[in-house]
Specification:
This protein is mostly beta strands and 161 residues long. The protein has one helix and 13 strands; from the N terminus they run E-E-E-E-E-E-E-E-E-H-E-E-E-E.
């Protein structure tokens, strides 16, 4: 495997109403990335007042997603009963396992006033032995996440990468 960095441009996917994500993985130039199924770069997308993201209910099985925002907010709702808004510095961790149906939309306040949405979403394939685990959803706010800093760098408790 080549140890030199590879720039991956990614492929743009329209999720509806002009909202796009750039799918960086999988990519032909980066086949050795471990268990990642997809690596999506969300936005940055500017939504004017009255508009927003509307990823309607859809199913997943056998994977987990991890969402981290740099800017904006997303409302997550799924068939387990969770209704949670994620904001910068927070993490949503959804394990689809034996099946989950969820939607991701702009929360009402951000839809009313407009927002910029920017973040990442990792899709991780569950190990074969765990592919049928019970579905679960966990939201971690800033206070539940580690805070790591070095001179000139910081991550955690609401600080983007």
């Amino acid at each position: 495997m080549d140890s030199h960095p590879t720039l991956i441009e990614g492929k743009v996917h329209d999720l509806g109403d002009g909202f796009r994500v750039r799918r960086l993985l999988p990519a032909l130039l980066a086949r050795h990335v471990g268990p990642l199924v997809f690596f999506d770069h969300i936005g940055p997308a500017v939504f004017e007042a009255g508009n927003g993201m509307d990823v309607r209910p859809h199913p997943h099985i056998g994977l987990a997603t991890i969402t981290w925002l740099f800017d904006g907010a997303i409302r997550h709702r799924e068939n387990l009963g969770s209704l949670t808004d994620i904001r910068p510095g927070e993490v949503n961790w959804m394990t689809a396992g034996n099946g989950i149906v969820h939607s991701e939309r702009t929360p009402p306040q951000e839809r009313e006033h407009g927002q910029t949405l920017h973040g990442i979403q990792l899709w991780v394939a569950l190990p074969q032995a765990d592919a049928e685990v019970d579905a679960a959803f966990h939201h971690f706010d800033r206070t539940q996440l580690p805070n790591v800093s070095q001179p000139g760098r910081a991550i955690g408790r609401g600080l983007p990468l």
